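hey so u asked for the seq, here:
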Amino acid sequence: MKNKSNIYYLDESDIKNRRKKAFKDNAMKILAINLLILLIALLITFALTLSQSTANAKNINTNNTASTTYINQENGNINFVIKEYEGYIAVYSSISDEPIEKYNTLVSSLPKKDQELLSKGIKVTNTKDLEKLIEDLTS
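ran it, structure tokens below
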């Protein structure tokens, strides 16, 4: 800038420097906005993945009647059968034709050996084994 009687005039180099500074400032703002959008997208993806994982790994229905409803009358053991229901993994009690719990895991996404086992039904005699098998199949 040149001063001529208290009036400031900008020469061409001053104008170029101001334009460069303004461009850098705007570029930094755009970069910050893009990073913020990326962070929000990652958080949404993480939340959706977490909710899907939770849905796939949910435990069997444990309402108040579970301790009596699923007891096999012959031996007093709690018996379950894991098999396919409408293309998905499901848990049945040994005394019911309807699933007591369904999972969001497609049987077709499992290895062929697991698909064959599920088509026949996997018998389980306790809830600990049931939970482990469900976790293995749905993860």
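The chain has four helices and six strands. The CA atoms of residues 71 and 77 lie 6 Å apart.
lmk if thats what u needed
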